Amino acid sequence: MSASGRHAVGCRPAGRRLLMWGVAAVALGIAAGSAAAQQAPQSGAATLAAAPVPPEPSDYHFEPYRAPTPQTLSGAEVLSPAQAQALWRGGQAVFVDVLPRPPRPAALPADTVWRDPPHASIPGALWLPNVGFGALDAATERYFHDGLKAGTDGDLQRQIVVFCLKDCWMSWNAAKRALAAGYRRVAWFPEGADGWTATGLPLERLEPWQPAKAR
């Protein structure tokens, strides 16, 4: 298992010029979670300035998504890195990564192929990108529910651990959304992949979950 660096690559077909897009190209990028594009967090971002811990809101949180989060989520268990590691080693919990996919850069020429940068995450996790925004369009909402159903084999009692990055509201929103969908054992891991690597635990490259194609 390896910890892949985050970079983006665009390449023109038939031998045209290769474009390398660094981490800065997608830092706090814009990802579509609904009809309007919204801000997405960047992995490995600098530590946010000290700020008061916000209270738990009654509804989903909108921008800014990369900001201090509450210490609680009503109905969910809040995990420390040690607790998350114990569940991961137990092998029964479904870890759900909700980090958004970086968007295609607006300045990229139309005839240039956009390739997502590699995404390193907790080994064995289910990556459901773009499901942690404050509001979802119908297709993304369906993708979220279908992904959870596939990951849990439709068992609403299955333990789910939702995460993203530290100081990322995406995971808070997605965990709240899983509770609203009827999942009864939802855990929120607020330190996410940042807290995971800080304790020396491994990462592996993930691809977004895709539903099985109809035959």
Automatic annotation (TrEMBL):
It comes from the Bacteria. The keyword Glycosyltransferase does not apply. Keywords: Signal. Residues 1-37 form the signal peptide. Residues 122-205 form the Rhodanese domain. PROSITE patterns: RHODANESE_3. This is PQQ-dependent catabolism-associated CXXCW motif protein.
